[in-house]
Design a protein that fits this description.
Helix content: 10-25%
Structural class: alpha+beta
Number of strands: 18
Strand order of the largest sheet: 13-16-15-14-17-18
Radius of gyration: 22 Å
Largest sheet: 6 strands, antiparallel, barrel
Order of helices and strands: EEHEEHEEEHEEEEHEHHHHEEEEEEH
Strand content: 25-35%
Length: about 350
Amino acid sequence: MRSPLLDAPGAVPGERPDETVAAHYGDPYAEQRALVRGEALTDRSNRGVVRVSGPDRLSWLNSLSSQKLDTLRPGVPTQTLILDPHGRIEHHLTLVDDGTAVWAHVEPGTAADLIAFLEKMRFMLRVEIEDRTAEYAVVSVGAPGTEPAPRTLPEGIIAIGGDLLVPRDRLAGIADELGLRLAGLWAYEALRIAAHIPRLGFETDHKTIPHEVGWIEKAVHLNKGCYRGQETVARVHNLGHPPRRLVFLHLDGSVDILPPHGAPVTLAGPAAAAGEPGAEPDAGDRGQVGFVGSSARHYELGPIALALVKRTVPVDAPLLAGGVAASQEVIVPPDAGRNVKIDPALARRRLR
């Protein structure tokens, strides 16, 4: 569904899966600054919008997803995950309850699969599930991960934190209606990466579990009732470590390319050398330790990226991201998980 905001002056389309919205409007760095100041909005109208109504909606969603939703208060935004039976992430939902229905937005092209799953799980419960993507568009005000400034919204707009669900027939004029300028997805994504926020399908693959990308803190409640995939979440949190971890990468600014999504992350320098300190092994000798999720050029930090790497990669190891030299910042620590506290007296008895 092509956004009418692609007809705005200077608009340049994004790349798949964001080809129906603008990557930028001519000045990505200025657009980043405007988002940081809370003076711009980003068109994310390619995202799916799902509405769940009915008196059983919160308890039902609570039983299906990773977040505690049965006590969710109206107007409070949150995130939740739909996991497969092995605890791997299938869907990421950003949602709010308005007192009569839950409104959620999801990654482009995923709403139909989410609804198909939810429909199979309805049974005799009093819930109704609707795909409202054709009627509502997602726009995001300000920088991702920040608290939006309080504002009075025009009637008919639904707020989910800094994200707004706007009737599609008002999308073309929404920036003027709110008194904001337009910022493209390049600006939004650069700020998302700098804020260490993962995106489903970019920092995740078919085997990603919540601990690996830091969604335990934002989208998982560790003390709620059973849901599909909970055994894996509990096992990793209490007894083990996730096999991979999300890292933030500072990329070599002297290189004029950004590593694309999926580019291999490998060890560089002494960490990868076969015997000579500082030596670079041939590409065939250098094992892949992860992959690039997203990369961007930040208005202050320069070229940056998020990557998913093996847990055992040393936190100070220099890396190559798609061949570009990179240093890492820890987002998910190598010792994530294994949070069981064993009583010392019990431990002594076990040792006897």
